[in-house]
Amino acid sequence: MSRVYNFCSGPAALPEAVLAKAQAELLDWHGKGVSVMEMSHRSEEFMSILASAKARLSQLLNIPDDYDIIFTQGGASASFAQIPANLSHGFESACYLDTGAWSTKALKEAKKYTNVVLAGSSKDVNYTTVPDFSTLNLDETAAYLHLTPNETIGGLEFADLPETNLPIVADLSSTILSRPIDVSQYGMIYAGAQKNIGPAGVVINIIRKDLLARSNNDALPSVWSFENLAKNDSMVNTPPTFAIYLADLVFEWLDAQGGVSAMEQVNIQKAELLYQAIDNSDFYSTPIDVRYRSRMNVPFVLADESLEKTFLKESEEAGLRTLAGHRSVGGMRASIYNAMPLAGVQALIDFMQAFEKRYG
Q1: Does residue 102 sit in the same domain as residue 120?
Q2: What Gene Ontology terms describe where this protein resides (cellular component) (predicted)?
Q3: Which domain holds residue 108?
Q4: How far apart, in whole angstroms, are the C-alpha atoms of residue 344 and residue 355?
C-alpha cells in the first residue's frame, strides 16, 4: 500500500524519514535489545534521549538560558487549565485575546482559576480577522496575556505581538518550528506535539524561569506544578517516553532540512501556491482576512456546498486524505505542516483544478 498525502490537522503527518528511522529502531534501540517503549524513563538510555530532545529544540529555536523546557501530558487542552492554575497565583486576573475556537476554549477554562479580562475579540466577525492591537483592553496588573497565534480550526494566524509589559503566554501548537520566533518576547510558549512536533501524547512547554516561582505547590497536584516539573526534569511521574523520542527524531530531521528558517521558506511557498489556486478560482473561496491567513491550516469552501461530499470522496480516492473541515465549521481544510511536502500541496491543487473542470 502506497502512502497517501495526509492533510489532517492533528494527529498530523510525520516526516517519512522519521517514521523509517523509528521503524528501524523499534525493536532494538542502538543495540540495547529493547524498544524505547520498554525502557525505564530513569535509565541512562532514556535520559540521553530526553537531553537530546531538549538540546535540539533549544538550538532550533535559539532558546535563551533563562528559559526551561518542560514536557507535560494531557494535550494543550489540559494546558488551558494548568497554565492559569500555575501562573495566576497571587494575581487578581489574567488577560485573554479571543480569536477563534481554541482561544475561546482556553479562556473558558481559565475562568475556573482566575478572573478573565477579555483583551479583545473577533467573534462579531466570525473570527475571520484579528482585533486591532491598538484597541486591546489590557490590565497591566494581570498575571499574563494569553494568545493563540494560529487558530487551527478557523485558519487564522498572526505573527506580531501586542505591546505590553505582561508576560505573553502563547499556544503555538500549530505553528511552532514552522517559522523563526524570538522566544525572549514570550513569558511562556506551549504546543501540543501532534501537529509539527510528533505524535499525540506530549506537550512542549518553554517557560521563563522566573515564572516558575508562581506555582503554588501547596494547592497544585504535584504533576501539574511547573516549578516541580522543572526541578524534576519533567519526570514527576513517568513521562510519555516514546512521544519524546519521536519528537527528538523530528528535531533531528528539521536540523537536517536546514533548520527553522529554511523550513519557513518551504512553508511560504506551499501556502502561497494553495492560496493562489483558491483566489484564482470562482469555484473555491476562503473567508479569512488575507492579512491573517494561516500558513499551516488552509480552510476553503466550494461555491456549491452540495458537492462537498463528492469532493471528499474523490479526493480520498486520489490519495488526498482528511480534507474535511472541522465539524464546527464545515467546508474543507488542508493542514500543510512541516512534514507535508511541496509535492503533496501540488497534488491537491491539481486535484482541485481537475474537480472544478468536472463539476464547475
Answers
A1: yes
A2: cytoplasm
A3: 16-256
A4: 16
73 labeled binding residue = no
Report if residue 2 sits inside a domain: no
Q: Write down the catalytic residue from 102, 224, 248, 253.
A: 102
Write the pLDDT tens digit of every residue in 18-66. Answer: 999 999 999 999 999 999 999 999 999 999 999 999 999 999 999 999 9
Q: Is 328 annotated as a binding residue?
A: no
47 contact partners, CB below 8 Å, separation of at least 6: none
Catalytic-residue membership of 224: no
The answer on 338 and 241 residing in a single domain is no
Which residue among the candidates 29, 54, 98, 195 is catalytic per the annotation?
A: 195
pTM over 0.90: yes
Candidates 68, 98, 171, 248; catalytic one: 171
Give me the CATH number covering residue 119.
3.40.640.10
For the record, the C-alpha cell of 58 comes out as: 533549544
Number of domains in the chain: 2
Instruction: Compute the distance between CA of residue 217 and CA of residue 304 in angstroms, rounded to an integer.
Output: 55
Residue pLDDT, tens place only, 247-265: 999 999 999 999 999 999 9
Backbone angles phi, psi at 171, to 5 degrees: -85, 105
Flag whether 102 is marked binding.
Answer: yes
Boundary residue ending a domain (228, 256, 284): 256
Mean pLDDT over 198-214 rounds to 97
Is 76 annotated as contributing to ligand binding? yes
d(CA 112, CA 338): 35
User: Catalytic residue at 209?
Assistant: no
214 is in an annotated binding site: no
Q: Do 153 and 238 share a domain, yes or no?
A: yes
